[in-house]
Amino acid sequence: MHFALPPRKTSQPPPYLPRTSRLPGLRRTRLKVIALGGLFFLALLYFATRPSSRYAAVRAPKGDPPVVLVTVLDASKYSGVYLETVKQNRLKYAEKHGYKTLLARIGDYDLGGSPFSWMAIFAMRDALTKYPDCHYVWFLDASSFIMNPKLKIEDHVMQPAKLDELMKKDYPVVPPDSIIKTFSHLKGQDVDFVITQDKDGLSSASYIVRNGDWARFFLETWFSPLYRSYDFQKAETHALEHMVQWHPTILSRMAIVDQRLINSYVKGGKDEEYKDGDLVIRFPECTATGPQACEKESQVFAQAWRRVFAST
């Protein structure tokens, strides 16, 4: 009996049909549904379980008060008479416009060994906590007087359409030739931080912050222990210059305006020296020769603001 032999194997493998690159329509549909469902579940899980944050969204402020005016009173730098004049200046201006004041003193906050100038940032944070419904917080250094009680911050500076005209766009952040410049496309409605410059750079003696999530983020970042422990020559001012040049999140909400808008100096060039009608006059060098110096240098202007305030 003869049996059929199996066919001889060839050295060439038989041709196989290539695998299709397309899954059957039904299977593809099921995979899409599963994938979308998984993404939706992960999103729900994220929003349900993420930890609360100090920068979490807060309700929109009602504007009560419209502005909080913050000043730090340092008895080691200024005489008692001068500080009382500053205090009355702030209280009377705030009263005219329905604003609130936060007049902090050295020792009110624990700075953990940081220079006293950091008190300003601590006081700004405190103002947002005490007045969560304010629209703006304006820090004004004790070396300044408010001279024009008719001007309101929300109209004189922060009104979006006006701010569009006031802000310096595509402008060096640190003069004269910083390669980092303010945003050229920034709109007034998107500005949360307004500040001026002098010949040395950004001036932290007078600035305005719009209340909101970003303001809290900004002040917490500025007050970071990392910056406070770093030996900046001008402490918080140089820390601020570092922030705006290296962190677009800060720069993208900052507007630089003309110095005389909120920070005129008693002496200086035409773009910085005080003129009648300006909102503020500042005596930037008066503390250099002792606590009594500011009282003496500012005496004429102290009398002037009292006359103007009494007549309006």
Report on this structure.
InterPro entries: Glyco_trans_34 (IPR008630), Nucleotide-diphossugar_trans (IPR029044). There is one protein chain. This protein is an alpha/beta fold. The chain has one domain: Spore Coat Polysaccharide Biosynthesis Protein SpsA, Chain A, CATH 3.90.550. It is built from eleven helices and nine strands. The protein has a six-stranded mixed β-sheet, sandwiched between helices. Strands 4-9-8 form a three-stranded mixed β-sheet. Helix 2 (80-97) packs parallel to helix 11 (291-311) and helix 3 (119-130) runs antiparallel to helix 6. The radius of gyration is 30 Å and the shape is globular. Residues 38-57 have low confidence and may be disordered.
Key descriptive features of the protein:
Spore Coat Polysaccharide Biosynthesis Protein SpsA, Chain A; transmembrane; 312 residues; alpha/beta; transmembrane helix
Which regions contain 5 or more consecutive residues with pLDDT less than 50? 38-57
Radius of gyration, in angstroms, nearest whole number: 30 Å
* Major β-sheet annotation: 6 strands, mixed
Name the CATH class: Alpha Beta
CATH topology category name: Spore Coat Polysaccharide Biosynthesis Protein SpsA, Chain A
SS elements, strand count: 9
The CATH architecture category equals Alpha-Beta Complex
Helix content: 25-40%
Any idea what the shape is? globular
Tell me what portion of residues adopts beta-strand conformation: 5-15%
Order of helices and strands: HEHEHEEHHEEHHHHEHEEH
What is the CATH H-level superfamily? Spore Coat Polysaccharide Biosynthesis Protein SpsA, Chain A
Number of domains: 1
Instruction: Kindly name the structural category.
Output: alpha/beta
Overall pLDDT score: 85
N- to C-terminal separation?
A: 131 Å
Strand order of the largest sheet: 2-1-3-6-5-7
Helical run tally: 11
GO molecular function, one term: alpha-1,6-mannosyltransferase activity
Family: Belongs to the glycosyltransferase 34 family.
Protein name: Galactosyl transferase GMA12/MNN10 family-domain-containing protein
InterPro entries: Glyco_trans_34 (IPR008630), Nucleotide-diphossugar_trans (IPR029044)
